[in-house]
Amino acid sequence: MLFRAALTAIGAATSVAAVTSLEVQGSQFVNPKTGDAFQVVGVAYQIGGSAGYDPVHNKDPLSNGDICRRDAALMQMLGINTIRVYNLDPNLNHDECASIFNAAGMYMLIDVNSPLVGESLNSFEPWTSYYEAYVNRTFAIVENFKGYPNLLGFFSGNEVIDAVKTGATAPPYIRAVTRDLKNYIKNHADREIPVGYSAADVRDVLEDSWNYFQCSIEGEKDDMSRADIFALNSYSWCGDSNFHDSSYDQLVSLFKTTSVPVFYSEFGCNTPSPRIFTEIGAIYGSNMSSVFSGGVVYEFSQEDNDYGLVQVNDDGSVDLLSDFRTLQNQYAKLDFEAVQGVKATGKSITPPTCSESLIKEDGFNNNFTLPVPPPGVQKLIDNGIGKKVNGKIIDVGDWKVTQTVNDVDGTKLTNLVVKPLADGEINNPTSTESGSSSGSGNSETSDNASPRLAPLSSISAALLAVPAIVATSFAIGFTLV
Ligand SMILES: *[C@@H]1O[C@H](CO)[C@@H](O)[C@H](O)[C@H]1NC(C)=O
Ligand SMILES: *[C@@H]1O[C@H](CO)[C@@H](O)[C@H](O)[C@H]1NC(C)=O
Ligand SMILES: *[C@@H]1O[C@H](CO)[C@@H](O)[C@H](O)[C@H]1NC(C)=O
Hints:
CATH topology: TIM Barrel
Number of strands: 14
Helix content: 25-40%
Number of helices: 12
Order of helices and strands: HEEEEHEHEHEHHEHEHEHEEEHHHE
Oligomer: single chain
CATH architecture: Alpha-Beta Barrel
Bound molecules: 2-acetamido-2-deoxy-beta-D-glucopyranose
């Protein structure tokens, strides 16, 4: 610890602190500086749902620094180390938000698509949507985010396959988009950035999807169309469940042999509601953590589908919902120093060779002859796209949250700030053991040149109590962005 402190003090004086860019090694995310395997402790971040991305009004979830500062401060309290953002505008500047999340010790998982026409694959007729302007858009997202050290990876597709029917059409196209993205990154980024797929947890097609994307065509070592990561949006743990009843045990058996990192790109079933989040103990416990690399809770803000941890009001104020405190308390039961301190195995794993026999479900695509890049795309891969907005980490300067934030019981949280972490530090939940605290931030420095080294302790003891408020709404289903 002392050794690290000395190093970071020197580093911080001369440059803006940054999280360490993670690498994929075998089935793990690995921090190359510490050699530790990384567990995603994530939250989906898309205020306004898909409408939060509005290119006509230059709006997306990472384009307003004041909003990101508020939310990063809240996520620091919660213990988050990764955000997943679905729909972004590649023509906007995301420097302030990306820099805030970087300083707060958080990585970003970025989807390259959007629900707008021409900005994602059509599941049923993917050939009608795979053309230059679409692929160019995915490359523009790469250009925009490739310069951020806290970029964890890109999703080339989200739930494009949701049943055998779309499993018949979409797989070769998703794999082709993955290939194009990886070739673009290879030519135009200065580090390897993982690219993978975020699957719907539809058990008929889950195994086939995983195998279709993780396999290597003709056993080729550097098959550029192979996914680097495989994630699933899973809602099978509901209420007071357990490792077996939730069928998490089946997922662990299924993915035991994975050649790429597997994690939940969404989880958090909300029937019953409010949630109790007992799956946290399972996800980061020993039954799962050697196979899974954590997960992303769905989702930060309350939207129509009722999965929010906080309510964002029109005036920019925020009300914490009971799920926020419940989740925080579940994280606090675990020792995240230990969870994040497991040495990576260092093993590379030979992926299965793609073959018809790898695909089990009748009707799921088993053809590994991929569509060639559409006309014009190879030129973009070779020369780069025309107009680009390249992001970079900037000095943020101001860490204070200006909006009103109310706790579950209505008390106003005072002195809320983002606390910039030292170089290489990631945000961790405050464990109950180390747990006592120092008020809500007023004793903390907001000076970037004085990095904090201790785990976060921003939560006052009173606020750690599980709120008694019971939400009155009952969700009956969900639409994912
Ligand atoms: C590619 O994307 C950039 C940035 O959005 C845009 O300016 C350019 O016109 C696009 N090119 C094509 C061929 O779609
Ligand atoms: C781990 O698995 C065992 C066997 O299925 C189960 O009894 C136990 O509750 C699980 N532990 C957690 C934390 O889920
Ligand atoms: C596999 O897909 C390719 C490209 O779409 C096509 O030319 C070929 O006929 C397909 N093979 C089979 C066996 O269907």
